[in-house]
Design a protein that fits this description.
The protein is α/β, with parallel strands linked by helices. It has a single domain (about 5-115, about 125-245), classed as Nucleoside phosphorylase domain (Rossmann fold, 3-Layer(aba) Sandwich). About 25% of the residues lie in helices and about 25% in strands. The chain is built from five helices and eleven strands; from the N terminus they run ββββαβββαββαβαβα. The longest helix has 25 residues, at about 220-245. It binds hypoxanthine (HPA). Hypoxanthine (HPA) binds near residues 161, 183, 208, 209 and 211.
Length: about 250
């Protein structure tokens, strides 16, 4: 049976319903992960859980130690990763509350430690990243969304921005021209690091606000937090369905 790891983003710093068996403080060659790696029973099976921003939420997207997080999960026995990300909606279909199983990404982040392959290497490695998300895992998320009857998109291009500030309207217009449907700050380098560790990885994105310039007025944290609070039960239900079905 595959051991899944869930990486919880904003609004999912703990997995309600997880019957906790163990909390591991792990150290890695890259430093400490954002939080303890939790192991427990969820939806009738053993899973690992890690809060990407720490618990409580305290690490901003550009300061998350993505390498330590992925390494720690692999070390703890993860065989596949389900990542949860809060995002802004760019495409008209991506309204607040919508769920999207991303199929592609564009990386606009900079200055983040983004590879395990550096330093004293025996040889240079270039991993294939043509399709950043694992199709089988994506399929499981989409099947769960269909069964639950939640409005969702089974495809979407995720634009990963640096943060922690939100984008300008012109930056979002550029992302849109590039083909991005959703925008978030945590999708990369997480996905690429998972690939380097040969961990199948998929992203379940919850739209929590219209991206900059896509609605009148400014984007407020209160709006984002209210949307997260409304949507996170759906996210939990989808994760539970995936785990129970596999
Ligand atoms: N932009 C970037 N990241 C985000 C957004 C956004 O509008 N909303 C939630 N995460």
């Amino acid at each position: 049976m595959t051991t899944y790891a869930i990486i919880g983003g904003s609004g999912l710093t703990q997995l309600e319903g997880l019957d906790l068996k163990q909390a591991q403080s792990l150290d890695t060659p890259y430093g400490q992960p954002s939080a303890e790696v939790l192991r427990g029973q969820y939806a009738g099976r053993e899973v690992l859980f890690l809060a990407r921003h720490g618990h409580p939420h305290r690490i901003p997207p550009h300061q998350v130690n993505y390498r330590a997080n992925l390494w720690a999960l692999k070390q703890a026995g993860a065989e596949a990763v389900l990542a949860v990300n809060a995002v802004g909606g760019i495409h008209p279909a991506m309204g607040s509350g919508h769920l999207c199983v991303a199929h592609q990404l564009i990386d606009y982040t900079w200055g983040r430690a983004h590879s395990f392959f550096e330093g004293e290497l025996a040889h240079v490695t270039h991993v294939d990243f043509s399709h950043p998300y694992d199709e089988a895992l994506r399929g499981r998320l989409i099947a769960a969304l269909q069964e639950l009857g939640y409005p969702h998109s089974s495809h979407g291009v995720y634009g990963a921005t640096q943060g922690p500030r939100l984008e300008t309207a012109a930056e979002i217009a550029r992302l849109e021209r590039d083909g991005c449907d959703i925008v978030g700050m945590t999708g990369m380098p997480e996905a690429a690091l998972a690939r380097e560790l040969e961990l199948p990885y998929a992203c379940l994105a919850l739209v929590v606000n219209p991206a900059a310039g896509k609605a009148s007025g400014i984007i407020s944290m209160a709006e984002i937090e209210a949307e997260l609070a409304r949507g996170i039960d759906k996210v939990r239900a989808v994760l539970g369905r995936v785990l129970a079905a596999d």
